Amino acid sequence: MILYVEHTVDPNDLTIALWRFCNNLDPKRDALLHQHPSTLDPSKTFACMGFDGTRKTSVFDNFQRDWPNIIVADKATIQSVDEKWNQLGIGPFIVSPSLKFEEQMYGSEAVAGQ
């Protein structure tokens, strides 16, 4: 099996890669099966299955609406939370996950469905 994700997703970060993959997958539409007879034994079939976990577009996928964007907090919100963290009493400081996902956004704004 081959799982396809966006070029901005780090495939070595398996947890995040699988999360992004699952968010962009429609198994009915995004499964690709390649089969051909084995060159070593023609009575057997070689098969490889690919799953397209990338965002969908009208150009490449004939997808007729905007694909939902990944959601991240803006810099002002991140800074505000960082400044208040110690007073919140919620444990040791955690760097905002939004910083990790900024480069994975499709443009600069969220996209709402119609």
Order of helical and strand elements: EHHEEHHH
Query: Strand sequence of the main sheet, in spatial order?
Result: 1-3-2
The low-confidence parts are none
Mean pLDDT, as a whole number?
A: 86
Which structural class do you get from the secondary structure elements? alpha+beta
How many β strands by DSSP?
3
Radius of gyration, in Å, reads 20 Å
Number of helices: 5
Helix percent band? 25-40%
Strand content: 15-25%
**How far do the termini sit from each other?**
34 Å
Q: How would a crystallographer describe the biggest sheet?
A: 3 strands, mixed
Overall geometry = elongated
Structure description:
The chain is an alpha+beta fold. The chain has helices at residues 14-23, 27-30, 58-61, 75-88, 98-101, and strands spanning 2-4, 31-37, 45-52. Strand 2 and strand 3 (45-52) form a beta hairpin. The relative contact order is 0.17. Helices cover 32% and strands 16% of the residues. A 3-stranded mixed β-sheet has the order 1-3-2.
Which key features would you list for this structure?
elongated; 3 strands; alpha+beta; 114 residues; 5 helices; three-stranded mixed β-sheet
Element layout with pairings:
Elements: E1 2-4, H1 14-23, H2 27-30, E2 31-37, E3 45-52, H3 58-61, H4 75-88, H5 98-101
